[in-house]
Amino acid sequence: ESLKNKLGIDQPVDNEKINPSDCHLSIQTPSTKLVIVPKTFSFLQALKPTIPRIGPKSIN
User: How many CA atoms lie within 13 A of 8 on its CB side?
Assistant: First the structure.
């Protein structure tokens, strides 16, 4: 099961349409790139067991 499906995200994130100032942090993995905004900060709790390190910049 993909990470985005675990989070209930049906559509891929279109970074071209996201205002960088609205982003709390972005997470990039080989299969998924998520941009977490403040109102969806609760996703971070779900990501903790899955992603070993989370920082203000993309994880490469």
Answer: 4
CA distance 24 to 18: 11
C-alpha distances in angstroms, 17 versus 13, 48, 51?
A: 9, 26, 25
Instruction: Please list, in sequence order, all residues whose beta carbon lies within 8 angstroms of the beta carbon of residue 45, skipping any fewer than 6 positions away.
Output: none
51 assigned to some structural domain:
yes
Residue 60's domain comprises 1-10+20-60
Q: What 3-state DSSP class applies to 41?
A: coil
4-55 tens-digit pLDDT: 555 555 555 555 555 555 555 555 555 565 555 555 556 666 665 555 555 5
